[in-house]
Design brief:
Layout (H helix, E strand, L loop, with lengths): L3 E2 L21 H6 L2 H8 L12 E6 L6 E9 L2 E10 L2 H14 L4 H15 L3 H4 L17 H19 L1
Antiparallel strand pairs: 1-2, 2-3, 3-4
Helix pairs in contact: 2-3, 3-6, 4-6
Length: 166
């Protein structure tokens, strides 16, 4: 199953299954949810609506119900502002928060290159996992060990790619 567009609606989320497992964590899962991820989940950066957005897209992950509404203000080819509204697991929301910090003031080409590196890291590319250009996103490298979580981490990046290509 692929990505589908969604229209944000007031009220309850359309989530079917949560991406966040509420069972007691094992040591491997505990490493996945490290403090940086939880910090971005609890205190997301750049969350909210962007006035005068030039690009916008809404995506969801139908497998677990993660949702993101991403808005950008692009001037020339530079992403000047980025905001998101989203619901979902700690991975998707932390990835969105980290992504918004990383792509601000980057060119569209630089942002797309970062999206490619993030995707490579999620596919287990160890070189990408060590790539310092990914910044805090490297904390999500452990997600690659959990195939059902990869789409959670890539949702904001797919939204970014769709937004800048539209």
């Amino acid at each position: 199953m692929g990505w589908t567009r969604w229209t944000p609606s007031p009220g309850r989320s359309s989530r079917r299954e949560p991406c966040l497992d509420t069972s007691p964590p094992d040591p491997q899962l505990s490493a996945l949810y490290q403090e940086l991820i939880l910090d971005h989940y609890r205190r997301p950066r750049n969350k909210g609506t962007l006035e005068q957005a030039t690009h916008a897209v809404s995506l969801n992950n139908p497998l677990c119900g993660d949702e993101i509404d991403l808005q950008l203000r692009v001037d020339g080819d530079i992403i000047k502002e980025v905001r998101f509204i989203g619901r979902g697991c700690s991975i998707s929301q932390a990835a969105a928060s980290m992504m918004t910090q990383l792509v601000k003031d980057k060119s569209i080409l630089q942002a797309l290159a970062l999206a490619d590196r993030m995707s490579a890291m999620m596919q287990g590319d160890e070189g990408a996992a060590r790539d310092k250009t990914l910044g805090e996103l490297r904390a999500l490298a452990g997600v690659s060990k959990f195939p059902v979580r990869i789409k959670c981490a890539l949702l904001p990046w797919n939204a970014l790619t769709d937004a800048v290509k539209s």
